[in-house]
Design brief:
binds iron/sulfur cluster; mainly alpha
């Protein structure tokens, strides 16, 4: 229960920072992170494209490990991937 509350609190903090564009990561960093998440099995809500089965994230894609919204998490300079992909 305590871990769940901590995760929720961390998510709210991250979403708030992303919403007001606080602690932004450089655009090329955001793009690289999102490409890695799109190729990761822990990301939810991905859609296959018609281009060689390449997958893209949806606006509501989440990381199954940290529970964060990928679109918000990847925008924040201070965030990191829980398995070290970025
Ligand atoms: S943050 Fe890391 S573990 Fe989570 S979906 Fe992205 S690449 Fe995968």
């Amino acid at each position: 229960m305590r871990n769940a509350l901590r995760t929720i609190g961390r998510g709210i903090k991250g979403l708030s920072k992303a919403a007001v564009n606080a602690d932004p990561a450089p655009a090329d960093t955001v793009q690289l992170r999102r490409e890695r998440c799109a190729a990761c099995d822990y990301a939810t809500g991905k859609k296959k494209t018609h281009i060689a089965g390449y997958e893209v994230l949806s606006p509501t894609s989440r990381c199954r490990l940290c529970k964060c919204l990928v679109s918000a998490k990847t925008k924040l300079r201070g965030e990191s991937c829980p398995i070290g992909s970025w």
